[in-house]
Write a structure and sequence with these properties.
homodimer; alpha/beta; Aspartate Aminotransferase, domain 2; seven-stranded mixed beta sheet; three-stranded antiparallel beta sheet; 14 helices; 14 strands; about 15% strand
């Protein structure tokens, strides 16, 4: 009975984890080797090189931290911040709020700039705030997983650097799914997770630091408050010294390497295009029954579709039926979106036409079972399909 | 070529990771599900229950943290310590030293008690130190992976509690290999790793907190400095609330559950006896060629055999030959033991008669190749085998 639980095959269309390619699961199950084995150190080199490709960066300090995405966030913050350092955090959802919390715990003098959930930030607003109070680091979320909003980074990067600050960007949900340009956008510190558009199980956090971020690290007067996440030590393990720090999660690194190879084989640009195409198909299907996106128009994320639960529909009941009848997981709303928003993921290996069609058909069934009246006669699945012709 | 690296099959006889049972690797590769999926929450319940069995505790707050053993250490320290809290750390090797470092970063007023590497602590010495300067928390390592010394805990626990402190014990290398009695020895906070005697790949850190430790957590006036390791929040995910905190490493939890089932099937007492029996066999074989243990006599760990490199033998060359010719990984000395000590692991699934015999035979070959003169005519493998009759 207990064994069975581990054998459920889901269709992971929530906010992550996403579906994992069988090749990645196969790599995960290979025999464990030692963290100082020359063969494993070769694997770490391959991971770095493929992460550089995926982040679009030449940064030497590019590696996978031994924790999930939130550990990546904490890594960037605690390594860049010393007690009293001013940090500006932009908040438009759960993950910006989390970053401000992490920064406060690291002793930063935290300022926040907030806009409504679902909205994105204008560079001018950030410029104004920085003019009033300079910051050492500005933190912002590229793809807000709680609201489905896509934050343009390039213009913001310009004002952040004009004001002498370092730019820290959360790409947990965006990396491998939409354009991320660490070097092109001059991002100084960037973190992600493995379980979103990279389609690897959760457990590692890719992180990359620019030269300027490295200099800030080297100029520290105090120890990094977290021993486990201290990049001044971890870089000696990932670097040519190969000094033991902690025991890396060996098998998770096998899986990440395989997931990154799949990204490279598909090619980033084609992968981004696939995420956009499947998003458009889903969107047309949802529009046919009047289901609307909650993110600011024009800034919707393709891999995380946050939409309003239709009037009169029981949110939890639909999600339960999707899971139990179809094995489909979608996400509930977080925070102020609880009960009002669904988060439909189309991430990595889960971003397929088949998943879109399956989901639309299944949703139609769940809504019908609740006596929901559709705005027009045509079925949503048929509408989505017709539009793709 | 790159794929091949991941397919190496090693015999893991170093300080961890240890050999992983194929059942555990198979569980690791099962389809990923969501961290809020009712089926996954059931898996977390099963893990808690089996960790309670393995730690020998009734503690409700028993869970697996989403990082390796060092993250478990940091979890215990940062949750129990607030800035300025006095903490005594007992140092007789690398991991005690690490704990003092972690405590300092957490803002503890750190005192240390040090004895020579390889030695163990007497309760009286700790009592004296605590009488002079009381501490909120006393940290000590049960099985020092750098020296192979086994620290008796029971008597020390008595003096720690008589002096009003909480007892924090590192069981990274001991859990599942020798007797660990969290409730019986009145340990307040205890952490371990998955990749030693539990024979699961590295990536999770089992942790357990007593009622007294929980009370200290609840009485905190300041936030835990690490968001990622904050048990005040994580307990709401592992507890009945099931509140989202971070995305748990799903597949690693599948693997841990399977590894813990294997522990339960074998039975703790039988597992401990197996570790002792294979240690004795190894020891007789090593004694036959005059190789000596570096830990204090009578306190040698069965799963981590730290021995002196024989005079005139090239340490690195032997380890390289063991790995390349036989696929056997053993550990080098750390810190002041570098170049002078080998660390031979017999942990979990790797603690077998076959591994002992293979290792002794392989070591004999490597030493012979260096022209090493054995103290008596008999081969070490034969000596070990003869003694078991």
């Amino acid at each position: 009975m207990q064994m069975d639980r581990q054998s459920y095959k889901r269709v992971l269309m929530g906010p992550g984890p996403s579906d994992v390619d069988p090749r990645v699961l196969e790599a995960l199950a290979r025999p464990t080797m030692g963290h100082l084995d020359p063969a494993f150190l070769g694997i770490l080199n391959d991971i770095r090189s493929l992460l550089q490709y995926t982040f679009k960066t030449q940064n030497q300090m590019t590696l996978a931290m031994s924790g999930t995405g939130s550990a990546g966030m904490e890594t960037c913050v605690v390594n860049l911040i010393e007690p009293g350092d001013p940090m500006l955090v932009c908040i438009n959802g759960v993950f910006g709020k989390r970053m401000a919390d992490v920064a406060g715990r690291a002793g930063a003098d935290v300022s926040t700039l907030e806009v409504a959930w679902g909205s994105v930030f204008e560079a001018e607003a950030i410029d104004l705030v920085l003019k009033r109070k300079p910051a050492k680091v500005v933190g912002i979320v590229h793809a807000e997983t709680s609201t489905g909003a896509r934050q343009p980074i390039e213009e913001i990067s310009r004002v952040v650097h004009d004001n002498g600050a370092l730019l820290l960007v959360d790409t947990v949900t965006s990396l491998g799914g939409i354009q991320v340009e660490v070097d092109g956008w001059k991002i100084d510190a960037c973190y992600s997770g493995t379980q979103k558009c990279l389609s690897c199980p959760p457990g590692l956090a890719p992180v990359t630091f620019s030269e300027a971020a490295l200099q800030a690290l080297e100029k520290r007067k105090t120890k990094v408050q977290s021993w486990y996440l201290d990049l001044t030590m971890i870089r000696q393990y990932w670097g040519s010294e190969r000094l033991y720090h902690h025991t890396a999660p060996i098998n998770m690194n096998y899986a990440l390497l395989e997931a990154l190879r799949i990204v490279k084989e598909e090619g980033l640009e084609k992968r981004w295009a696939r995420h956009w195409a499947n998003h458009r198909m889903l969107r047309r299907g949802l529009a046919a029954i009047g289901i609307e996106y909650v993110a600011q128009a024009g800034y919707e994320l393709p891999m995380l579709n946050a939409v309003s639960v239709p009037e009169g529909v029981d949110d939890a009941k639909v999600r339960k039926q999707l899971l139990e009848e179809f094995g489909i997981e979608i996400g509930a709303g977080l925070g102020s979106f609880k009960g009002r928003v669904w988060r439909i993921g189309l991430m990595g290996a889960a971003s397929t036409e088949s998943n879109v069609m399956l989901f639309l058909a299944a949703l139609e069934k769940c809504l019908s079972d609740q006596g929901h009246k559709f705005p027009r006669g045509a079925s949503i699945a048929a509408a989505a399909e017709a539009d793709t012709q």
